[in-house]
């Protein structure tokens, strides 16, 4: 499920596990991956913001990942990525011309 509410974009993903124990293990693995990513890129402010916005939980056999970010933050990142992509394409096309 994804959408926008109160100036925030949200995404929720759910995964059904075979049993409660598996769901707990999956939750712990996902939380560990988030922690590793945050540690490995501790100077990356954007990644830190994203990892802090992701919440992993489990209830019985279901593991849920939720992320909620301000719309303006997401739009700023999309615009910055579009600019990088455009600049890259321009550099690439100039190289092909020479």
Quick overview:
The chain is elongated and about 60 Å long.
Explain what you see.
This protein is of the alpha+beta class and 98 residues long. The chain has one domain (2-70). It contains three helices and four strands; from the N terminus they run ββααββα. The chain has helices spanning 20-40, 45-53, 71-97, and strands spanning 2-5, 8-16, 54-59, 62-70. A four-stranded antiparallel beta sheet has the order 1-2-4-3. A hairpin with a 2-residue loop joins strand 1 (2-5) and strand 2. The longest helix has 27 residues, at 71-97. The model has no long low-confidence stretch (mean pLDDT 92).
- Classification by helices and strands: alpha+beta
Ends apart, CA distance between termini: 47 Å
Strand content: 25-35%
- Taking pLDDT < 50 over at least 5 consecutive residues as the criterion, the unreliable ranges are none
Q: Could you give the order of strands across the largest sheet?
A: 1-2-4-3
H-E order: EEHHEEH
Helix content: 55-70%
> What best-fitting shape do the alpha-carbon axes yield?
elongated
Mean pLDDT, all residues: 92
Radius of gyration: 18 Å
The description of the largest β-sheet is: 4 strands, antiparallel
DSSP E strands, number? 4
Helical region count? 3
**What count of domains describes the coordinates?**
1
Question: Which descriptors would you attach to this protein?
Answer:
98 residues, alpha+beta, four-stranded antiparallel β-sheet, 3 helices, 58% helix
């Amino acid at each position: 499920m994804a959408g926008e509410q109160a100036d925030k974009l949200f995404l929720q993903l759910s995964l059904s596990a075979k049993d409660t124990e598996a769901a707990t293990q999956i939750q712990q693995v996902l939380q560990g991956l988030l922690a590793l990513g945050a540690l490995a890129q501790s100077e990356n402010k954007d990644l830190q913001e994203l990892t802090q916005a992701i919440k992993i939980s489990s209830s019985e056999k279901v593991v849920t990942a939720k992320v909620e970010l301000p719309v303006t933050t997401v739009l700023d990142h999309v615009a910055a990525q579009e600019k990088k992509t455009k600049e890259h394409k321009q550099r690439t096309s100039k190289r092909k011309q020479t």
